[in-house]
Amino acid sequence: MKRQSLPDPDSRTQVLRARRKHTEQVLLLIVYTVVELWAVVAVVVLLKDDGVLAVAASVVLAGVLLALWDNWRTLLMFGRALRAWLPEELPEGDREPVRQSHLVRL
Fold it and tell me: Which domain of life is it from (predicted)?
């Protein structure tokens, strides 16, 4: 995942954007995790081969699980840093209206 910088805690729009973006990333990672775990189970159950293909499949599956673990660890570390960095209540100074958009930025 892309490394992110923490927002300015005095800017209401940056705080709201950071919280929303973190929530979107958590939801996307949940969907990604479910799909990847389904694929791992399908490969393990349906693979009826010995030898080189079994070794290659086990190496690929181990890589998938390591990637999932690293993504979750990174996202949870950023979430903890975000909660520790940002104030509990939103700042009053930045009164720019927050536009609601139905588009998802990736």
Answer: Bacteria
